[in-house]
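Interim report, section 4.2 (structural modelling).
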Amino acid sequence: MKCAELLATLNEYVDGTVDPAICEEFEKHMAGCNPCQVVVDNIRQTITLFKEGKPYDLPITFRQRLHSALRQRWRETHCRKP
Amino acid sequence: MTNQTTPEVSDTDLVARAKAGELDAFETLTNRYAQRVYSLTLRMLRQEQDAEDVTQQTFLSALENLGGFRGDASFATWLLRIATHAALKVIRKRKGLDTISLEAATEEADSYGTIPHPEYIADWRQSPEELVRKHEIQRLLDDALAKLDHKHRLVFLLRDIEGMSVKETAEALGLSEANTKVRLLRARLQLREQLTRILGDPDRRVVQTHPPTEQEH
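Predicted structure of the assembly:
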């Protein structure tokens, strides 16, 4: 396996969905190629960092507007007079 | 308060109650997911007013179409899919691509052959766990995301931040799975590059001494 081929199978490797035979080749390449090993570590760290990141706060005024809009739509669709 | 989020009540129960006519149950679901939907759409659209509009549309649409929700996917995934469709409409409108799908407009450029090889390679000075404890890291992450082209950012947001599968991400964005995977790889590599330039330890920088395509083991 070459560095470029490793790059093309990087997603499957870090997501744990790579074919076992390719996984073996992947790891064999990494054992002899420190730059690729570090890139794989960096990619895992990058994903972890984003996964654990914080969502944006919902503006309070918007939360109120959102609920008002929902209640109004609910009245329109559920409380129609015959 | 009637709308307080009660984690012990499952989404499935709340959906069933909302379908049966309980507005409170739907409002509890809204409280549970509004921040997540808003945050996703703000990261997709980079504009607060648009994110608010799309978030509101998402919950109104969910309210109206709740009867059609069969529970094949989780309620969260169903909501995020509605939000993504609404956000894509805004993006297309901005770009004047109302009649051309994003896939058709950009498919050609997406192949593994043109994936750029990593340039700045170094071990990071701190672990992700240490970094998330610091307040300033979120700004860094949001800035890095903002620098991505939207077609790469959207795939990364749904797959890696929201935890959708590749298949769900592809369906939400109207892309093939193959194209979704290439975009995800590009997004991950670009974010790695940006973050490593800031968080990498210069003393532990690894310099590639061979042409990237020739190294074989």
